[in-house]
Design goal:
Length: 112
Amino acid sequence: MRGRTDKRFCSSRCRNLFNNKRKAGNRLLIRQINNALLRNLEILSALLAAEYHGIRLDRQQLAEKGFDFRYSTASRFSQRGNYYCFIYEYAYRILPDETIILLRCLRIPESI
C-alpha cells in the first residue's frame, strides 16, 4: 500500500465495500420488516378495496394470503378493552374464535 503510514484501505473502492458490508447487517433486518409491513398493507387494502366500513374473515384466510401477524405499525386498546393492531391506516382485531374484524381508519386514534 502506498500513501500515509496509517492508511487502512488500499483504495476508496475497498473502503466503500468494507463500510457497505458492515452497514448491510442492520439495514437487512429493517428492509425485511418494511417488506413484511408493505406486504401486509397490500393484502389488507385489497381485501377492503370495495368495503367502506370493514369486513369479518377467518384468521386462516388472511394467513393463506401471506399476511404476517408478527408485524404491525401500532396497537391500541379500545375503551371497551378490545386490543387492535394497526398496519398504517388499517386496524384488525382477532376474536377468540380466530375470526378477524378488519377496519379502515383515517388516523390511528388515541383510543378506539
